[in-house]
């Protein structure tokens, strides 16, 4: 059932991407019909489902089980992803014809917080996708703002420009992330967005490099996840297991990649060893998982803005 829905989502999203490419590099202000908004939301939900079902992911929920999460299983993640469909569609509609401004930032934050309520309602209070609502929400808005000419580079930069505006209506919240940022001097999910999502770009680059080298799709996705795990200051790891958990995750991810990645027998062995070490520390790289989902959401978007065709350049 889920696979069918996913295929429909991907088909709609591919049609939207084909239309964006056909339209040529027309710049910002892409008008968003309900069908376009639904296609963007479909792409976001499909990315969350693809991340959730990718197996084996060290410490994380996957097809094998709940990983280090006592309160979340695969069905919870899938229900959470589906519950967020209207949130991503609303974000796409609200972004039509806008530019990065305090007003847009505040509109998205309101929709994002409403999405968090939907998420908590279906998960019984577990935080499955707060980081994903934040990252994919900003990137979905940026895709609309960037329109036909958008690339991974420009979409991530524009998402950063939106994020850097203040949200005057943000209620004070003592979140795990905020506590970890204070305790360990890292910038967390906010810092990642403010910097224009460098780890999402890293995941996209790894994904594409591994595919180009002939890797199977799941291996390319696992290596993209590990490339982020080797570097990200994940506040989910920090709040659960402190600096030790972050270090174990980083060194473990580097060990898998150093042995040739998920496609090799040694890499698979190192990956499962990392999984065991993270489970022993009750540590989960939830923020890393969100970065992979965000990278999958940008699948199909070209890495760089394509240069204007020669004819158009002569007319400039
Ligand atoms: C700006 C916000 C992201 C809030 O951030 P803050 O840091 O204050 O709060 P958190 O609630 O901790 O959310 C941050 C989530 O982001 C993910 N993350 C962590 N590190 C990074 C990183 N370096 N870069 C990017 N993303 C990162 C991570 O999400 C995943 O982990 C979640 C599980 O975490 P946790 O709650 O700690 O869960 P448990 O360990 O299971 O908790 P316990 O059971 O032990 O209590 C999981 O959800 C993954 O998604 C962090 O959790 C933003 O949320 C915000 O301001 N939102 C307001 C609305 C808004 O503006 N929206 C914009 C819409 S476009
Ligand atoms: N697969 C996963 N496991 C645990 N937390 C997550 N947050 C987002 N995806 C996750």
Short synopsis of the structure:
This protein is mainly alpha-helical and about 325 residues long.
SSE series: HHHHHHHHHHHHHHH
Q: Write down the oligomeric state.
A: single chain
What does the overall shape look like?
Answer: globular
- The averaged pLDDT comes out at 90
Structural class: mainly alpha
Unreliable spans are: 1-11, 18-28, 309-316
- Binned, the helix content reads 55-70%
Q: N- to C-terminal separation?
A: 51 Å
Tell me the β content. under 5%
Number of helices: 15
Count the beta strands.
0
List the helices and strands and how they pair.
Layout lengths: L1 H22 L10 H20 L20 H10 L1 H11 L6 H22 L6 H17 L5 H12 L12 H9 L3 H7 L3 H15 L4 H13 L5 H24 L6 H16 L5 H12 L12 H6 L1
Helix pairs in contact: 1-2, 2-3, 2-4, 2-14, 3-5, 4-5, 4-6, 5-6, 6-7, 6-14, 7-9, 8-12, 10-11, 10-14, 11-12, 11-14, 12-13
Descriptive terms for the model:
single chain, 316 residues, mainly alpha, disordered C terminus, binds adenine, glycosyltransferase activity, CitG
Descriptive overview:
By secondary structure, this protein is mainly alpha-helical. It has one domain. 68% of the residues lie in helices and 0% in strands. It has 15 helices and no strands. The protein has helices spanning 2-23, 34-53, 74-83, 85-95, 102-123, 130-146, 152-163, 176-184, 188-194, 198-212, 217-229, 235-258, 265-280, 286-297, 310-315. Helix 2 (34-53) crosses helix 14 (286-297), helix 4 runs parallel beside helix 6 and helix 6 packs parallel to helix 14 (286-297). The chain is globular. Residues 1-11, 18-28 and 309-316 have low confidence and may be disordered. Bound molecules: ligand LTSJ6FE6 and adenine.
């Amino acid at each position: 059932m889920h696979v069918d829905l996913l295929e429909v989502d991907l088909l709609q999203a591919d049609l939207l991407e084909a239309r964006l490419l056909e339209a040529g590099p027309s710049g910002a202000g892409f008008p968003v019909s309900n069908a376009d908004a639904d296609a963007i939301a479909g792409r976001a939900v499909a990315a969350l489902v693809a991340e959730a079902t990718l197996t084996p992911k060290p410490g994380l929920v996957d097809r094998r089980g709940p990983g280090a999460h006592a309160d979340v299983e695969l069905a919870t993640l899938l229900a959470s992803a589906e519950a967020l469909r209207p949130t991503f569609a609303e974000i796409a509609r609200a972004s039509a014809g806008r530019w990065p401004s305090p007003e847009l930032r505040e509109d998205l934050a309101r929709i994002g917080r409403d999405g968090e309520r939907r998420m908590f309602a279906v998960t019984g209070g577990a935080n499955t996708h707060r980081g994903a609502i934040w990252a994919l929400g900003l990137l979905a808005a940026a895709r609309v703002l960037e329109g036909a000419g958008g690339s991974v580079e420009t979409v991530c930069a524009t998402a950063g420009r939106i994020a850097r505006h203040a949200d005057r209506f943000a209620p004070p919240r003592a979140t795990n992330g905020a506590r970890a940022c204070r305790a360990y001097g890292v910038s967390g999910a906010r810092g990642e967005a403010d910097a224009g999502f460098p780890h999402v770009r890293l995941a996209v680059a790894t994904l594409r490099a591994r595919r180009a080298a002939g890797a199977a799709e799941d291996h390319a996705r696992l290596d993209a996840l590990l490339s982020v795990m080797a570097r990200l200051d994940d506040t989910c790891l920090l709040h659960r297991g402190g600096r030790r958990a972050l270090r174990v995750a980083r060194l473990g991810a580097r060990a898998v990649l150093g042995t040739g990645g998920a496609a090799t027998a040694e890499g698979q062995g190192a990956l499962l060893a990392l999984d065991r070490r993270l489970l022993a520390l009750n540590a989960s790289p939830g923020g890393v998982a969100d970065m992979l989902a965000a990278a999958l959401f940008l699948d199909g978007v070209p890495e760089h803005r394509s240069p204007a065709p020669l004819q158009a350049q002569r007319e400039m």
